[in-house]
Structures are given as structure tokens and as C-alpha cells.
Amino acid sequence: MEFKPEMLQTYLIAGTADVPDGQLFKFVERALKAGITAFQYREKGLYALTGVAKANLGKQLLVLCHDYDVPLIIDNDIDLAAQLHADGIHVGQTDTDIRDVIKAVGPEMFVGLSCHTAAQIRVANEVPEISYIGSGAVFPSPSKHGSPVIGLAGLRDLVQLSRVPVVAIGGIDETNIIDLPATGVAGASVISMMTQSPNIEATIALMNQIQYLSAG
């Protein structure tokens, strides 16, 4: 699946640890029906799936995402991404080196990279195979514990430096998401805003109403 900036509009990140009682598949299905534009499968935490269990769920999620013409992006697992023929892979600054990831996956899938400083963006700008950047934490976030909060001004600076679209992450909720378009980002990537929402359909509808100029 070819990368398009509009995929970043309403970007869900989740793994089994984020959704209780083994309900990740059903949760993602509900989110897809409601209109998410991308899904990143990210297994982290004490109860994260590994090995065959992770691969099997990944296969099911890939089929599900493709039923809705939405990309499945794998978080920092080259082997799983290759095994599934995923649409994309996302890596952080402390994960596998981005050039090694690009070499391993080739042109088969698009690549996203987390960047939180101007220096990191400048390095990323020299790697033409990178399709998008994830930047934050924009606001304080439990999932980004220990990460510096860059704020809206910091996010705007990174967007202006980046040669590729940027998706915001970190502490985004239904109140502050309305401030993101002014930074120039292409969308918002969230975990708890969706997984802890009392009404995921309403949350996703709100996210899809936000107009990001950089997403075209």
C-alpha cells in the first residue's frame, strides 16, 4: 500500500496491553468501522504478546485493516513486518537503526521514524526512504513517561524543518487536539485517547473532523 499523507489523520497505536481482556482485534475492528486512517500494531509492556502469538494476531489484523483499505504499520519488528508483508514499519530513535530497517524492508513498505529534536529531524532529512515523522510528546503523556514535552511551539519548529509529513503524538486528547493544525502537522497518533474513550465512535469522528492543511 502506497503511503499517503492523509493516512496520518487519525492514527491509532495499540497492542494487547492497551486493550483489556484480549479484545484488541475487536477493538481495532470497531475503530476501523468508525474511520481510523492508520493502525500501528505495537506490542509493549509486561503482558505483550511475543513469538507465534504475536505473529498470528498480526496476520489477523493485517487482513482486517485491508478490509477497510487502511494500512497496518508494525512497530520496530522487522521480522514480523516482513513475515506479514505489512504496509509500513515505524521505529524510534532507540530502536533498530533506521538505515538497517530500510535495507531490510526495501521498497516493499513505507517507513516512519520518531524524531523529537531538530538534530534528529536534520538527520532524517538526509534519508530519502523515510515517508513520515512521528514527533512529540506534544503534551504530557503516560505512554511517553520520561520523554521531554516539546509543546506546540516545539512541534511547529520540527514540522517546519522536516521534508516529510509529521504526525503528532503524546498526550493528545479531545480538548487539545484542536490546537494541532496550527503547527502544520498532518495528523494525530494516539493510544489512550481511543483506548480509554467512553465512546470511540465519537472520538474518531472528532479526529476526522480536524482539518490539517499539510495532509492535503
Task: Outline the fold blueprint.
Layout: E1 10-14, H1 24-34, E2 38-41, H2 51-67, E3 72-75, H3 78-84, E4 88-91, H4 98-105, E5 110-114, H5 118-124, E6 130-135, H6 151-161, E7 166-169, E8 187-190, H7 192-195, H8 200-209
Helix pairs in contact: 1-2, 1-8
Descriptive overview:
This protein has a single domain, classed as Aldolase class I (TIM Barrel). The protein contains eight helices and eight strands. The chain has helices spanning 24-34, 51-67, 78-84, 98-105, 118-124, 151-161, 192-195, 200-209, and strands at 10-14, 38-41, 72-75, 88-91, 110-114, 130-135, 166-169, 187-190. An eight-stranded parallel β-barrel has the order 1-2-3-4-5-6-7-8, surrounded by six helices. The longest helix has 17 residues, at 51-67.
The total count of helices amounts to: 8
Main sheet: strands, sense, barrel: 8 strands, parallel, barrel
Work out the strand percent: 15-25%
Q: What is the highest CATH level, the class?
A: Alpha Beta
Within the largest sheet, what's the order of strands? 1-2-3-4-5-6-7-8
Bin the helical content: 25-40%
Overall CATH architecture: Alpha-Beta Barrel
**Superfamily (CATH H level) name:** Aldolase class I
- Give the rounded overall mean pLDDT: 94
CA-based gyration radius: 16 Å
CATH topology: TIM Barrel
| Content-based structural category | alpha/beta
Straight-line distance between termini: 18 Å
Contiguous low-pLDDT stretches (5 residues minimum) are none
Query: Which outline best applies?
Result: globular
Number of domains: 1
SSE run: EHEHEHEHEHEHEEHH
Q: How many beta-strand runs? A: 8
